[in-house]
Specification:
With 358 residues, this protein is an alpha+beta fold. 51% of the residues lie in helices and 12% in strands. Helix 12 packs across helix 13 and helix 13 packs antiparallel against helix 14. The longest helix is centred in the middle third of the chain and has 22 residues.
Length: 358
Amino acid sequence: MTTIIETLNNSQLFSGLEEKTLERISERFVSVSYPAHTEVFREGDVGDTFYLMQEGEAALYKNLGTVQHKLRNLRTGDQFGERALISSARRIGTVKTKSAIKCLCMDEAGFKALMESEPRFAQRMLKLLVDRMKESDDAAARDMVAAHQALSFSLAKLADSRDPETGGHLYRVRAYCVLLSELLSKHPNYEKVINDAFIEHIYLAAPLHDIGKVAIPDGILMKQGKLTEAEFQIMMSHTVLGAEALDTVIEYCDHEMFQMARRIILCHHERWDGSGYPNGLKDTLIPVEARIMALADIYDALLSERVYKPAFEYQQTKDEILSQAGTRFDPDMVTVMFENIDIFESIHQKFREEAPKL
């Protein structure tokens, strides 16, 4: 069994400190056990405890829609929970145990007293936070907040458009995109492209995919029955119109999230065989994020009732998508999706009747 002193010596925050100093610090901690597969705390909780891993394994996750994205693993000697105590903010993620664990826990009062009484600890904590900022690129994170605000404004305008199903569709498609991105990040064809930043960006960008439809006349957008050739040409223009609308935003905020959103808006109706629109792009010339959106969008559309069609059943939807793997859709993406189709179906079932706030 690992003692408190041994755990402190295994931590980058405390290793190398004098024995008497470690003894003083150890008195501020209590050892707490957590069983396997439980939450130590949740994203959004009030931060009132600092944790130091003593035994076992855990992981820190961030919520992206219905998917929990793993940020980092936590093992003996690793600390977590400090940022919420320093900034008096809410928890930025959820910590779950992977095995039974023991943690050394210190309450907020003890943590602040330690920061004030032990200069070397405070210096090391400062270095740790600087390193974390470099890893997560907090400058980009601040940009992300600004981008998210602008995104929310765009979505608020879109929510006022004519389609009463828009809210639920946008939420589900965003969840599908995040899930598919997570799964593809482990695939050899995509692991060098899809990283944490990609997943966060697609989470924010996905709801913008059809903003160009705001400019399409009601008579075409809501038409029951097949569109004429002239009407279909107008409908197809929503990709270009949406991309042009985003160009104005990019002029003032050239954030990668908006660049990704523009690629999705413009290219999510391109087809793997080159027969799509607006530019007839083929296979890997189509941006990865647009290929993901194409699959997520049609999956939800097939399962949803529209003015021009009834909702498909799950098997009918699977058959339709599988029949177009390698022609309309990236075949590797279809394979990955259908290897995990039960998760996609559970998302659809959960939010079929809900239209949560974006």
